[in-house]
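#onboarding

Welcome to the new folks! Below is a worked example of what a typical request in this channel looks like: someone posts a single protein sequence, and someone else replies with the predicted structure as tokens. Don't worry about understanding the tokens yet, we'll cover that in week two.

Example request:
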Amino acid sequence: MPRRPENGEPFGVGPNAVFKGAPNPNAARLLQCYMFTAECQQLAVDHGGLRSAHALTKEKSGRTPMAQIKTMKDDAAAVERQSAEIKMRYSQIFKV
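Example response:
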């Protein structure tokens, strides 16, 4: 089993939305509905290497269950306070 950071691992979520000015909002809503089905979520797990909170999905074998992984706690207020510093550091690292 791989070693995991003691203070937790980052946990990212993939947002999903329909833009207000979408040219085909009904089609966008249909796609969005499909993306939350067990079938599509299982595709994301099997072929995208992602994790899903959908109750009917099954993890890839040999993978540590999410329940056993300590995740980092976000501090949105701290990120907001440090946003200028974070952006500056990002620009320095990625030269943008």
